[in-house]
Inverse folding.
């Protein structure tokens, strides 16, 4: 994979949540409600039916507060101070549907919003806000049988420590001797192994698909991709070898030993979003005997030249948002199909390099796995 292309893709992380269409104040609907990701009992931040976000922060000793939205927090919304010590303000335009990171800059210092829950992104815990999506039903919490997400600590001789992973097991797991396929699912740059459960709702997506009979039950393993040691702007210096050893020589054997897995290539997949896609691309090419299914979510492409002379994948899945570079994904899939590969593309409408793109991508990917 061309690292220059990955760097361009990742650059959109910095702007994905803060590109607004200008709208006059009189056109903004006054139907604001607390964000679904607020701290218990907190009224702000709020969102309205058009996708605007409104903030209210109590800081009587402060002189200036700016809300910076999107991974990296570029630009932002300047809040206005009132006589009561509250700073208030509304975004200049509607935000994309779905999840966004943000933080507050108060008199030059960076802080999280005390009204919002925190999520790990930008190599730190950031505030989170959710703009309800019209299609949010597929990742909603419903009255269906639920799987389990558990933390495991596995030994890593290569890093001389125990490392953490989260494992989703589907409803009914462990009640009998049934064994399951496994998807190794990687997070993006600046995030960690909590991202796919917390920001991505991967477990709820799977529960709902399984309940609807649209998806074969399988295990998902999510671990830290050791990406945060690479600072922004230095992605070309990223080396995959250390994480590849952790994943292929330590984590996979541990999971196969401690979980009810079908431990072969045809029942093992790897996928990743953004930089996790870059990791997936490199590791599946280096260790193609281990994985039968490859998926890059806003994480670059495969081409037939790099896949030739290797065990043929059962599926190559490429996706991105419509505000990214969808022509690259669609052209790559067309080329793969032409050369005899089972390849599928998916473009998430009206989203950029953000979690609604990746939630939708997982919804499309999961039913295609392990057939």
């Amino acid at each position: 994979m061309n690292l220059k292309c990955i760097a361009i893709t990742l650059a959109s992380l910095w702007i994905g949540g803060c590109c607004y269409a200008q709208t006059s104040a009189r056109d903004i609907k006054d139907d604001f409600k607390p964000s679904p990701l607020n701290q218990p009992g907190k009224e702000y931040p709020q969102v309205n039916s058009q996708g605007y976000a409104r903030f209210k922060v109590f800081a009587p000793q402060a002189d200036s507060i700016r809300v910076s939205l999107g991974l990296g927090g570029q630009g932002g919304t300047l809040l206005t101070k009132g006589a009561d010590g509250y700073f208030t303000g509304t975004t200049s335009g509607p935000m994309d549907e779905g999840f966004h990171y943000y933080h507050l800059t108060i008199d030059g210092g960076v802080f999280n919003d005390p009204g919002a829950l925190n999520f790990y992104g930008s190599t730190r815990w950031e505030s989170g806000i959710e703009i309800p999506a019209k299609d949010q039903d597929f990742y909603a919490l419903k009255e269906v049988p639920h799987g389990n997400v558990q933390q495991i600590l596995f030994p890593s001789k290569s890093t001389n420590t125990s490392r953490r992973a989260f494992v989703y097991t589907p409803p009914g797991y462990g009640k009998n001797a049934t064994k399951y396929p496994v998807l190794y699912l990687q997070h993006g740059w600046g995030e960690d192994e909590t991202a796919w459960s917390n920001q991505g709702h991967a477990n709820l997506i799977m529960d709902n698909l399984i309940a609807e009979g649209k998806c074969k039950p399988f295990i998902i393993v999510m671990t830290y991709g050791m990406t945060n040691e690479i600072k922004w702007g230095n992605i070309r210096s990223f080396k995959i070898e250390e994480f590849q050893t952790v994943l292929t020589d330590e984590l996979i054997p541990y999971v196969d030993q401690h979980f009810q897995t079908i431990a072969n290539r045809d029942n093992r997949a790897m996928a990743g979003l953004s930089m996790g896609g870059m990791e997936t691309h490199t590791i599946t090419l280096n260790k193609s005997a281990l994985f039968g299914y490859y998926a890059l979510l806003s994480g670059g492409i495969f081409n037939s030249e790099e896949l030739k002379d290797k065990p043929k994948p059962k599926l190559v899945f490429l996706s991105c948002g419509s505000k990214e570079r969808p022509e690259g994904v669609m052209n790559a899939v067309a080329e793969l199909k032409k050369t005899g590969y089972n390849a599928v593309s998916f473009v998430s409408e009206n989203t950029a390099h953000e979690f609604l793109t990746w939630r939708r991508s997982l919804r499309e990917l999961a039913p295609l796995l392990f057939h």
About this structure: Confidence is low (pLDDT under 50) at residues 1-23. The longest strand covers residues 98-106. The chain has eight helices and 19 strands. The domain at 18-132 is CATH 2.60.40.10 (Immunoglobulin-like).
